[in-house]
Specification:
With 328 residues, the chain is α/β, with parallel strands linked by helices. It contains twelve helices and ten strands.
Length: 328
């Protein structure tokens, strides 16, 4: 089986959701739960953003064993220095550098031309690589970037030492067929793409984060960035539990692919994140919602009592769901 790398950003992008503030103790508790869940990478925070975030990333790096521990940084030396120092205690640290590449971001946010963006991208990756052998680079707003410029940036950052290139749909703008085409075109137009893992990071502004992530996987992406319960900026991120269970349930489509996730821990971790962030899970939320395995229609109940697979494509115990399924 070929493994899909699960990059969990609940503690970074997830915590950026308005109202989802976590203290260091709570972050450590979630990080340890993610270890038991079996995630490959934990993006523990954005170290330069505050002293509290720096200390939380450092504490997780020093106490959590198993996954790679990742710190986020802008393409600025002080950010990269902070990410390095915060993840230094980890046995498997990663520095994740990002820089916007879309025309709208370059013109209005960064006020920089393409050549300067390319130079900063290369220099920041080289600088980070001096500290750490595991470097990820994200061309922010990649889905709205000019493709030829995006190909050029991806090629150059790989040459500069990036092991992973993440292609974010930062504002949840793209459609599945369009996003899959983007991933396929990167594979076909970046000469050194075989030297890096293609990652995807999708937002849910149009409700398509999971669909886009899955389409990217079918087109060659092998790392997926996601969060527990899909929490995150604005409308949230791709939901980890939905991605993992889609791959597990539809082996006919995702043939030969699997993740390391211990799916029996999914509901337990979902409830923990919900409790600590204060964000309740909608009853009809896929996989982890309270109604996900409950049946009220008499016709459905009759079918389930005779043969569960008539109306349940996932066994409740496979995701750790506890509770009765028949509602009278």
């Amino acid at each position: 089986m070929e493994r899909i790398i699960i990059f969990d950003t609940t503690l970074r992008d997830g915590e950026q959701a308005p109202g989802a503030s976590l203290n260091q103790k709570e972050k450590l508790e979630i990080a340890q739960a993610l270890v038991h869940l079996g995630v490959d990478i934990i993006e523990a925070g954005f170290p330069v953003s505050s002293k509290g975030d720096f200390e939380a990333v450092k504490a997780i790096s020093g106490s959590v064993r198993g996954p790679v521990i990742c710190g986020l940084a802008r393409a600025i030396k002080k950010d990269i220095d902070a990410a390095y120092q915060a993840t230094l205690p980890s046995r498997k640290p990663r520095i994740h550098v990002f820089l916007a590449t879309s025309k709208i971001h370059m013109q209005y946010k960064l006020k920089k031309a393409e050549d300067e963006i390319l130079r900063l991208a290369i220099e920041s990756v080289r600088y980070a690589r001096r500290y750490c052998p595991d470097i990820e680079f994200s061309p922010e707003d990649a889905s709205r970037s000019e493709r030829d410029f995006l190909f050029r940036v991806v090629e150059e950052v790989i040459a500069a030492g990036a092991n992973t290139v993440n292609i974010p749909d930062t504002v949840g703008y793209t459609q599945p067929r369009e996003y899959g085409s983007l991933i396929a075109s990167i594979k076909n137009n970046v000469p050194n793409i075989n030297k890096a893992t293609i990652s995807v990071h999708c937002h849910n502004d149009l409700g398509l984060a999971v669909a886009n992530s899955l389409e990217a996987i079918t087109n060659g992406a092998r790392q997926v960035e996601c969060t527990i319960n899909g929490i995150g900026e604005r409308a949230g991120n791709a939901s980890m539990e939905e991605i993992v269970m889609a791959i597990k349930t539809r082996k006919d489509i995702f043939r030969g692919l699997d993740s390391r996730i211990n799916t029996t821990q999914i509901c337990k971790v979902s409830r923990l994140v919900s409790k600590l962030t204060g964000f309740s899970v909608s009853p009809n939320k896929a996989i982890v919602g309270g109604n996900a395995f409950r049946h009220e229609s008499g016709i459905h109940q009759d079918g389930v009592l005779k043969e569960r697979s008539t109306y349940e494509i996932i066994r409740p115990q496979d995701v750790g769901f506890v509770g009765t399924g028949i509602v009278l």
